[in-house]
Write a structure and sequence with these properties.
single chain, alpha/beta, six-stranded mixed sheet, 8 strands, globular, binds uracil, binds iron/sulfur cluster
Length: 287
Amino acid sequence: PHLRSPAGFAMTDALRRYLEYYRDLGIRNLYLTGYTTSTLPKARETAAAATAAGAVEAAVPVAAPPAAAAVPRPATTLDLGLAPAAPADAAPALPEPVETLDDILADIGNCTRCRLHKGRNKLVFGVGNPKAKLVFVGEGPGADEDEQGIPFVGRAGQLLTAMIDNTAAKEGIPIRRADVYICNVVKCRPPDNRTPEPDEMEICGQFLARQLAVLRPRAICALGGTAAKALTGRKEGVTRMRGNWFKWRGIPLMVTYHPSYLLRPYNQNAKREAWEDLKKVLHLVYD
Ligand code: URA
Ligand code: SF4
């Protein structure tokens, strides 16, 4: 039998299953609508979808995960239902995925859910092995990534590639960049490469959470403060967090410096530290 929302929309079992999955993933809000509905050609359909979404939300109350309830975080923090390090064991288990990476990509579509769509040339979803045991998460696309639609292909990306390939080779671990998966917190390039705003991270963050839930890697490596904040909900700077293990929904999460930071000549000490962090991650995942 179908559930019926208060507004009278029939809710199929499939739709219900998706909504429950997103809820179990800790996604509080599904941003189904465009950022500027009035300027979109399909404005009327979008508005109808929004109404339906509101009704569905009323029919399936989205409960806050226990970890989030126990440790309230300010609204400015991206909240993907992520557990802070200490009570990580209390985090609910990651639900069995009911979708694929291609499904997520299709759902993103020609996304206008946040203002970052305005400046984008190509949306940057992610790259690498869908069966990867290790996922790197950056901040957001830069100019080169925006042009090519592939994460970490610019100068910082080349450094990341060298770090992965060289560290693995040195440690006798037979993997290369193509064996891992790489993506960002936001999928569209922020203007002038500014840091993504909290609302942009919140809106786009659902896609990152869904990617990670489908990939289910053995470990995640957060590159820089933005990814670290997004995935841990913590506010400390990357300097304090790096080199330490956290958890994202039960998956070990290492925080390290962003490769762009390592490119600056006065940060050569950080380079050595980043290499150490990467070594730890590679051994945890591939030993
Ligand atoms: N910096 C990022 O954070 N991500 C990219 O994809 C490229 C540069
Ligand atoms: Fe959509 Fe994310 Fe791009 Fe914003 S950054 S428009 S939410 S894909």
